[in-house]
Amino acid sequence: MRSHEAYVPPTAPIGPLLAKELREITAGRALWTMLLLVCPLVGYSFAQAVSLYSESSAPALQSPVLATSLSPLDGILVPTFGSFYVAVTLLFPFVAIRVLGQEKESGALSLLVQFPYRPSTLIATKFCAVLAAWLVVSIPALSALLAWAILGGHLAASETLNLLFGHLLYGGLVGAIGLFAAVISDNSATAAIIALAVTIGSWVLDFTLAGRSGLSAWLAQLSLTQTLRPFEQGLLSTGLVLRIVAVIGALAALTVVWLPPGTPVRTKIIRSVSCVLVVVVALTVAAQVRASVDLSEDRRNSFSSADERLLATLRRPLIIRINLAAEDPRYIDLRRNVLGKLERALPDVTVVLANERPNVANPSDAYGQIEYVYGDRSDLSRSTSPREILPLLYALAGVQPPAPSVGEEYPGYPLVASADAMLLWFFGGLPLLIVLAWRHIRRLPPDKGSRIHQGVKP
Amino acid sequence: MSTVNDRPSPHRSAPLLGVRNLTKRYGSDGAAIDGVTFSAVAGEILGIIGPNGAGKTTLLEAIAGLLPVNSGDVSWRGEPLHAGRRRDVLFYLPDGVRPYQDQSAQQVVSFVANVFQRSDADIRSTIEALGLRPVLRKRVHALSKGYARRLMLTIGLLAPHDLLLMDEPFDGFDLRQTRDVMGVLRRETARGRTLILSIHQLADAERVCDRLILLSAGQVRGSGGLAELRVQTGLPNGSLEDIFLALT
User: Do B99 and A24 touch (CB under 8 A)?
Assistant: First the structure.
């Protein structure tokens, strides 16, 4: 039964642990229930998106100008994955919590922490299982992409993959929140309350504080909802990716800190504070990283190539002083049409928001003015359109505007189609396949050939 | 089955595990264990006995490093043993745990055996010794209390550690099964393993243990072999039950 020489391996192979985690997550009902709920949710959103897109496409088929406004990213992908985002926000925490909560509730955690794995290895493996679960629950959304392609719809690889990457990061973030909630809670119900308080509270934060200035704007930035917006606009922002990865890493580190039951709470708190300090530094550094890539096919986040090339040669600092309130629609227009693009194209841009609200009783002429200072020259404008602002900047820099680019216009992809038949897939075929897969996975491995039964090491 | 009376005492010159002044308090309540001191020598079965709430489980969890303590030390072969390193030398088998309930007993055994890189012979003999084979394909949640206990014992015996701590290892077994498992544990000690068992059934403890620690209200009320305890209590023919009542 036992060798005479006791041998406790300092580390154990990772394979059995990962296999155990995957078995655990697929053996539970949470994953499959979520998958079954996501099917009709995504299917209905997809069908509605196709219907609206078709209505808009009908006149656009006759007019190339109208067609340019029809982007599958906005019309199909974002609404379809929007419903997936809702499901991940509300349901995925339950799947992630189970990965750790089940072991805490059954007492198996006291066995697990005695196995020759570091706590960080245990949590890393559990996080891998959570990501695998995210991949499984994304099957309906991925099948919507396939359905769109079958209907003859256009998919731009770069913006589609970028959107998927954003959702993967968001899934990882929600999963990390679930794991952390599970490790600090006595039971799964409490963990679910904590995780949902964060995810749903994040929505509230976004709804109530978005578009405001000062502290409110900073708080709104903390909303999880903000993480997906750039990806939905076809933008891959290095700073944002680094910030999300830093937060996921911090949550994972905190989970590692709170995992060992034998560590005194005081020690855990001290280590947690250290983790938080490290992540604050990491977030500060990541906030300085402005590099981003516009992966949208219609280049909505960029000026024309000729303008981008010319703007990149303007090496002196550009200071933009904006005399508008943050919630003013003109400021929102300016940020979307000009400021965001300038920050990507110019090497050194500083935006100063005056942050003043218009005084209705005593209106100021200065409100609405935007001052552009380049080197020792400056100019004022009230426009929010790049057609007026770019020539102004070129004049300040003393350069000639570039010749208009030819052949860069986004053609648009109008499509008149019906996704009604696809509803059969989302409401019937796919759920049936999921149930069959669930039954198959829940079946115990066959007796015949079992290595334990044959006396061979399993 | 031998009892504490008729077995030669293990070699006691070099304690394998030393526990000194171990104290654990929960908030403002009294101490769950209060200044517990004892040692275990290699190859013995040391029984920790006491009524419900005596602090047996707390003591085992504290020794295993799964529960932070307020004070006290644990040493291994005379050297201080930090809580983070305890899992390197000892393995604790908790009571009332049904691990990975949606998986089959076979999958759980496979997982543990692979983690500890146990040989085919070890796996086979452990399963046979504990009679787990009939339920290997059953899910853990469907196991009877007795077979769930056998599964936990299988996990414990697959752990290759020199020292095993077991919380109520005979709970859920009938008389015959208890005696069989005692035989299995006794064979483990014959191979050099040391066992510390928390037992609330005094008759079981008397049958299987070499030495006993009597715990009551978190404090050690007596320790030693049955003969020593009889001398301590002045009950030359007393049973363990008599001794326990006299000391607590």
Answer: no
A contacts of B126 (beta carbons < 8 Å): 1
- Secondary structure class of A108 (helix, strand, coil): coil
Q: Where do we find the tokens 């999921």?
A: A434
- Distance (Å) from the C-alpha of residue B229 to the closest C-alpha of chain A? 33
Binned at pLDDT 50, 70 and 90, residue A356 comes out as: low
Residues of B in contact with A26 (CB under 8 A): none
Partners of residue B188 in chain A, C-beta under 8 Å: 1-2
Q: Which fold has domain A305-397?
A: Glutaredoxin (3.40.30)
Give the pLDDT confidence of B42-98 residue by residue, as tens digits: 999 999 999 888 999 999 999 999 999 999 999 999 999 999 899 999 999 999 899
Burial of B45-61, coded b for 16+ CB within 10 Å and e otherwise, reads bbbbbbeeebbbbbbbb
Exposed e or buried b per residue across A317-345, where buried means at least 16 C-beta atoms within 10 angstroms of its C-beta: ebebbbbbbbebeebeebbebbbbbbbbb
pLDDT digits over A377-414, tens only? 999 999 999 999 999 999 999 999 998 777 778 889 99
Report the pLDDT value the prediction gives residue A6, as an integer from 0 to 100.
47
Q: Is the Cβ pair B106, A265 closer than 8 Å? A: no
Q: Which of A3, A4, A8 to mutate to test the interface with B (most CBs of B within 10 A)?
A: A8
- One of 2.30.30.280, 3.40.50.2020, 3.40.50.300, 3.30.1490.270 is the CATH number of B17-89+161-247, namely 3.40.50.300
- Chain-centroid distance, C-alpha B166: 3
Q: Which residues of B touch A19 (CB under 8 A)?
A: 111
- A455 contacts on B by Cβ (under 8 Å): 120, 123-124
The ipTM is 0.91
The mean-pLDDT minimum among A51-55, A426-430, A448-452 falls in A448-452
Whether this prediction's pTM lies above 0.95 is answered by no
Question: Hey, are the CB atoms on B160 and A3 less than 8 Å from each other?
Answer: yes
Burial degree of B102 (CB within 10 A; 0-12, 13-18, 19+): middle
Domain boundaries, chain A: 4-294+418-452, 305-397
Q: How far B205 CA sits from the closest chain A CA (Å)? A: 23
Residue A375, SS3 per DSSP: coil
Which residues of B117-200 form beta strands (DSSP E)? 163-167, 194-199
DSSP state of B135: G
CB contact under 8 A, B83 and A111: no
How many C-beta neighbours within 10 Å does residue B134 have? 10
The span from the CA of A121 to the CA of A109, in Å, is: 14
- Contact residues for B117 (Cβ-Cβ < 8 A; gap 6+): A9, A12, A13
- Sheet strand arrangement including B71-76: B31-41, B15-25, B71-76, B79-80
A440/chain B closest Cα distance in angstroms = 14
Average pLDDT, chain B: 90
Tell me the domain boundaries of chain B.
17-89+161-247, 98-160
In sequence order, which residues have a C-beta less than 8 Å from that of residue A370 and are 6 or more positions away? Answer: A320, A321, A322, A323, A324, A334, A380, A381, A382, A383
Which residue in A has a C-alpha nearest to residue B104's C-alpha?
A444
